Amino acid sequence: MVADVSSPFPAVPVPKNGALTDRGPHGGADVEGTVGELGEREIVQMPSELSSTPEEGAGASREAGGTRRRNTRRWVLEWLAVLLVALGVAAAVRAFVVQTFYIPSGSMEPTLMIGDRILVDKLSYHLHGVGRGDIVVFSRPPGEPASPELKDLVKRVIGLPGERISSEPNGTVLISRKPLSEPWLSASARSDPGPPIRPQVIPPGEYFVMGDNRGNSQDSRYFGPISRSIMVGRVFFRIWPIAHMGFF
Question: Which CATH superfamily is domain 99-247 in?
Answer without folding.
Answer: Umud Fragment, subunit A (2.10.109.10)
